[in-house]
Design brief:
The chain is mostly helical. The protein has two domains: 69 residues, no CATH class; 37 residues, no CATH class. Helix 2 packs antiparallel against helix 3. It is extended. Keywords: Membrane, Transmembrane, Transmembrane helix. GO terms for molecular function: metal ion transmembrane transporter activity.
């Protein structure tokens, strides 16, 4: 594996791993595993297959559609603005409050 490919692989692995750790999907997976402790291997396999499938679809869409029409610099700026807007909406409580309350209710 070339140095640039290894660097891209490791940065993708690190970013996706860190962003998925606190994601609501992972919390749901933990709740499913907790509800069925004898079947954790099936929960783990189902969760892993779902993440592989969604990531594969995202890569296909990104490489065949998004990359065809947008330059990398445009994608970088647009994703930065989207991140800031979503962060502000979460901080202001415009979005996300119902999901947090639902998760609190299902955990308790």
């Amino acid at each position: 594996m070339r140095n640039a490919s290894l660097k891209l692989f490791l940065s993708t692995l690190g970013i996706v791993f860190l962003s998925e750790m606190g994601d609501k999907t992972q919390i749901t997976t933990m709740l499913l595993a907790g509800a069925k402790p004898l079947y954790v291997i099936y929960v783990a396999l189902g969760s892993a297959m779902a993440l592989i499938c969604t990531s594969f679809i995202e890569v296909l869409i990104g490489s065949h559609i998004v990359a065809r029409y947008l330059k990398p610099a445009t994608i970088k700026v647009a994703s930065g603005f989207a991140f800031l807007i979503l962060g502000l909406l979460l901080i202001l409580g415009v979005i996300g409050a119902d999901e947090i309350n639902t998760l609190k209710g299902s955990i308790l």
